[in-house]
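Chain A, query sequence.
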Amino acid sequence: MTRIFRTFSRLRWLSPGLAGLLAVGLARADYLTDTGYTALASQLQLAGTPLPNGANVTVAQIEASERSVVSGNVTSYAYVANVTSGFSGVTLTNASEIRYPSVSSGHAGTVAGYLFGDGAMARGVTNVTAYLADDWIGAGSLNTTTAGLSLTAPNVENAEVTNSSWVGTTGNVTYDQRVLSRLDYAVQRDDFVAVVGANNGVVPQNLMASAYNVISVGLTSGGHASGNSTSVNGAVTFPHLVAPLGVTSYATPVVASAAAVLIESARASVGTATNGARSETTKAVLLAGATKSEFPGWSRNETAPLDRVYGAGELNIQNSYQILTAGEQTTDGAVAASGWDFSTISRNATATYTFDLAAPADVSIVLTWNAIYSGSNFNALTLGLANLDLSLYSVGTGGVLSLVQQSRSSGNVEHVWATGLTGGTYRFAVNYGANSAGNLSSVDYAVAWQSTGTGFAVVPEPGAWSAGFGVLLGLGILARRRRLRRAAA
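Chain A, predicted structure.
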């Protein structure tokens, strides 16, 4: 069988060791509580509000193969989850089967459990497409080739959330860039949320956390590759979020599952069905709701607004749900102390949002927008990256503005985290300035914010409430391949 990228090489099996296995198991028992899901369930139960579960949200699961099986003249690859047990009502379509015959994969099954299993946040997801990662970057989806000229665009992505619990490289920096730019192009064109894992350990990989338009995921423990030290897209930093799992292969689908819950919630909220479900909005809402109390050393600065190791912080679905359901706000006027907006800004323009704090509070604001690739040669797309900045001011007597904090990174995420603000009036501004890549006269953006006086996720959790845990972990013995490999390895 001809392969665009010769990524199937001899498997090298790895064990995370006893400590690693214990960490994975303990994280499984606690992660729904630690990420705010159990508290959200309690909050909505007390309010008589249905708990969103990702119903009618379409998902794609992209997996590297953990082994190959030869039978006669046919080689099959292990990359598909067995959804016959623990996955109520799920219909799984294998989009790579015609090119890469499949057998079931334990790794894919565990990832699927966190993503859409009966114990996951998005346990209502029933429509799932599976891909082999090698096929997905080639003919299955992105249509990446090694030829110098390609007029073939990526296939239209019908899934609303994609999960990539694998890392690696094609072995060629030019080809890696083609994969990443095609993915960013597809996210912008088709408006889906692409959630990808950072590598475990300290060595980063080009694929896939170096893409601009993804949500990259690491571990609450910090045991993942971080920063921006890959050989492509130097303005990208990773991870964006962390989750309390033992390996990034399993932290990634937890974030993807939360994204599916938010998309369903946006559709159910009057006035947010369109903009609230956009990929930029989902990313901003997830990052703005992240918690930092787990990380005493969490830090940011003006040009590096996300912590180098922990990104925006740990996923908290309760905070993000509250931001989303606070509703879309309007620019250049008074807004609520929590909320979000999806809008378009022109070059050299500024959009402002003014809100009041009735009491001392902490404020989290996240601004996101997509890198926009263009051109007819899809192997050499032109990058358009708007230079947006985010600033928070206090508003004094006579409307005098005093700068509280700025975020001016070279990428496409800005974050303000201001703690201990006094009561009063505040204004934050989104500015589209100079020094942008490409000739973009305007760009869409999403901004999300939350203010609280006592820390996020303040709703108490009744002791009688417990969420179901329908997914069982296997032993966690993981395989690594030389190039594309599962991020858990």
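The two ends are 26 Å apart (CA to CA). The domain at 12-486 is CATH 3.40.50.200 (Rossmann fold).
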